[in-house]
Amino acid sequence: MKVLVCIKQVPDMESKFKINANGTWFDENDLAYRINEYDEYAIEQAVQLKEQLNNVDITVLSVGPARVKEALKKALAMGCDDAVHIEDEQSSLKEPFQIANLIADFAKDKGFDIVFTGMQSQDRGSGQVGIILSELLNMSCVSTIAEFEYKDGITVKRELEGGLKSIVKVSTPVVLTCQLGLNTPRYPTLPNIMKAKKKELLTIASTELFAVDSSYETVNFYHPQKSGGSLILEGSVSELVDKLIVILKEKTSVL
Amino acid sequence: MKLLLVGEYREKKLLNVTYDLVGIANKLGADKVMVASGYESDLPKFDGKLYLANANDVGEYNPNIHKQMILDVVEKENPDVIVFIHSSFGWDLAPRVATALKAAQFTEVIDFKDGSFIVPSCNSKLRRELKSKTNKTVITIQAGAFAFSDESTASPIVEKITPSNTSNVEFVSYEEAEAKGLDLTKADIIVTAGRGVGKKDNIPIIQALATKLGGELGASRPVADNAWVDHSHQVGTTGQTVSPKLYIACGVSGAIQHLAGMKKSEFIVAINTDKDAPIGEIADVLIVADVLQFVPALTNKL
């Protein structure tokens, strides 16, 4: 069985974001990057499937600038077999439809049975790439999976709202987008990290793949104005404690 | 301008957020056409046209069937914007419909301005203003962003439709959340542990404050997913929606899904080292401090 895992590298969400010169995205310099949290669940699910079935070959793929090689190496150290880097220095300015087309062009003749990916990225949060990819490749797709079982076919549970789930059966080829909590992503072991470091990555320039025009433009990108409603208190812990107790006594009926 | 609104039914009932769709249409001053797979026994009230498929025949949600159902109505009505709720239903369908129509798609729209749609990014720390270059635009709207409480008494003109019934995805059944031992919706005081608490070993510090105040312990999604606290304590879209008199968020950054579950609290205190954390947007008081130092000090002083 051939499995593809699509991952993205995103900045730490705790970062102080600065707007880039064009006002179209954040300035990508001086940020710490990591694998998109949702995608770690996608990697883990692929590796668990491989451990269950043995005859599984996992390719991990990422679109992005040179730094995404680090994310791919980590995915290899977690248990993926091969890594593909679609090199694109401008990837952060591309929209989901453009990214999905690049991936689809790479994947179209490779015969992948299952594609795992995160349900959304932490930075854009559009939740579109995996689903568009399934449409472009004419594969089935179930998004937001919170449980996965491979036994006489594939059964997944989709997370709906308010604690409700739907149980869905689907056959391959299929794209599955992964929700947080699907599994417990493993930490790579040191020997596996060392092995992954030595592995060759396949690098393809995005310009060699099928490109589509953008369907929208970013008019503005900005920090929202503070609503001003919240009182911000800073200072020493003991001062803060005293101030808060006074406020709670004045403003609430609970103290 | 004409909007095609995609309504939602769950477990035989019209979802109330369907009225958010009416809300954005009113705000844009647009003509309203709705399409839904639902039941005649519970029809939405609005002034427009409703294309209704029978959910008993085609299911409440099936991506293949519902995609085609929407595309058929788009063909008949030629709307400018196709609007979904940003829900497990909407965010799954919208990219499928957008791809088929070669239309721009914007996810989780919270507002619009001069022909552009505004969406959050980076955990809601930033905003993007996006303008479509295609004839049709597909959007999902954040639940609550266009809330429309003044429910109309108008009835839509209903046209029944029969979508094709073939799919490569098979819905088996719904699964309810496990019986919850804890009902946070009735709590007057909730003290919630967020990711900023650091590790499972620190949860007793938060629990101690909750106990001292006579309240309950809440948890954000990552805290529940990491099994630091049982899922039954989770507050948010996929957990419980709460409205206590006092909500203390400890090390909670304030992901939109969490805010949706607790923003109706009467008084909100957030404790966070990050002054810019989105929780600050809705907190009455933001204490800029390390929860591991501040919370025990507060507990002692109470």
From TrEMBL, chain A:
Domain Electron transfer flavoprotein alpha/beta-subunit N-terminal: 23-213
Any GO MF annotation of the entry: electron transfer activity
SUPFAM superfamilies: Adenine nucleotide alpha hydrolases-like
Domain of life (superkingdom): Bacteria
Keywords on record: Electron transport, Transport
Family: Belongs to the ETF beta-subunit/FixA family.
Name of this chain's protein: Electron transfer flavoprotein subunit beta
Automatic annotation (TrEMBL), chain B:
Pfam families the record matches: ETF, ETF_alpha
Gene3D superfamilies assigned to the protein according to its UniProt record, in alphabetical order: HUPs, TPP-binding domain
InterPro entries: DHS-like_NAD/FAD-binding_dom, ETF_a/b_N, ETF_a/FixB, ETF_asu_C, ETF_asu_C_CS, Rossmann-like_a/b/a_fold
Comment on bound cofactor: Binds 1 FAD per dimer.
Residues covered by the Electron transfer flavoprotein alpha/beta-subunit N-terminal domain: 3-175
Entry's Gene Ontology BP terms: fatty acid beta-oxidation using acyl-CoA dehydrogenase
Keywords: Electron transport, FAD, Flavoprotein, Transport
UniProt similarity note: Belongs to the ETF alpha-subunit/FixB family.
Protein name in UniProt: Electron transfer flavoprotein alpha subunit, FixB family protein
